[in-house]
Amino acid sequence: MYKVYTHIVSIAGDVITVEAEGIGYSEIAHVATRRGTSLAQVIRIDGKKVSLEVFAGSKGVSTGDRVRFLGHAMRIASGDNLLGRIFNGSGSPLDKGPELWDNPVEIAGPPVNPAKRIIPAKMIRTGIPMIDVFNSLVESQKLPIFSIAGEPYNELLARIAIQAEVDIIILGGMGLKHDDYLLFRNTLEEYGAISRSIFFIHTASDPIVECLLVPDIGLAVAEQFALRGKRVLVLLSDMTNFCDALKEVSITMEQVPSNRGYPGDLYSQMAVRYEKAVDFEGAGSITILAVTTMPGDDVTHPVPDNTGYITEGQFYLKGGSIEPFGSLSRLRQQVNGKTRDDHRTIMNTMIQLFASYRETREKLAMGFQMSAWDKKLLHYGKIFEDKIMSLKVNIPLEKALDLGWQILAESFLPEETGIKKSMVEKYWAKSSR
Description:
Elements: E1 3-5, E2 8-12, E3 15-19, E4 27-33, E5 36-46, E6 49-54, E7 66-73, E8 75-76, E9 86-88, E10 105-106, E11 123-124, H1 129-132, E12 137-138, E13 142-147, H2 153-163, E14 168-176, H3 178-190, E15 197-203, H4 208-227, E16 231-237, H5 239-252, H6 266-274, E17 278-279, E18 285-293, H7 302-310, E19 313-318, E20 321-322, E21 328-329, H8 343-365, H9 372-389, H10 397-411, H11 414-417, H12 421-432
Parallel strand pairs: 9-15, 13-18, 13-19, 14-15, 14-16, 16-18
Antiparallel strand pairs: 1-7, 2-3, 3-6, 4-5, 4-7, 5-6, 8-10, 11-12, 17-18, 19-20, 19-21
């Protein structure tokens, strides 16, 4: 039996308040107005006062309208029929396809029991050397991409979507510009990856509540595929927009603000989403890559600052490439010893020499005289930036390792690299051919 209330106590922005009993947090309701029916979600319960965010906005809602509570949290269809489809933040089709009601699952469920998780130990290849070689992406990992406005973070996500060796791609767009939405759609269509993808898109002009729903919807669908044995990669852009939506709702609800006006539970709100990353025992996995834009390139901003305590490293996108010294995959050691025996050697040696190149470049800028070794480092650094760091480079891991040996051989003598003799004898001669 549905609970129906015919008196709305207050309307503030897109939030309406009714007096009701026996209502659960995150419960869904229908708000019937003269213009039609809109979905709303419970976002706060204070005694008998129940506040709901109206998906379509409160325009046209009056205090005499009917609110009918459905008795459950929001549900989303799941299954293979979703593949190749594009939906908005409330699960309605954007691609002119039919509405789907198959195998409905509730969103925003609890994280997986740790006893059912297994230790991450499988690499996800992306064809991007700065990820595959130096900061390998691991199944069930949760990683943010720290960036600033203007950097090609959505282009990077789109490229990972078409190249990552996974079964299912789920894209959650939050506050996307229409051009960015088209970028994702057109790129995945062009490279034939749309058939294994599902889009949940919230644009900057859509209701705020749909922005808050996107991660929960995407992760609920991802969990169903993972339980069926699929390797699922969830791409989210942009978590800062998600947190700004949380901030806006908390201000509307007159909650006491925390750092820079964000709600006090910002950490928990993000953690409950990121902790959905999991490798199921005897089934599939969920891996999360989420863009986090940093206002003013400030890593101490509340969103990236809290993110760093939740996730297992980060990719730092700067100057159009993945910055080697700002990026870290804390789980890379779980997989890069199982790829090729020279993987760690190439990773460590090339980064150490690139650090020396950066120091030499500073010396050059200050007018110091360059030694023969400095000149070698400058030569090496330029090749590394062009052939390894550039996001235009698209090669498998093994070819990237071979390229690493070639760059070292072109720039240095074997004894100048510090690589042990057995490894030099095995790979150096091949790279010089």
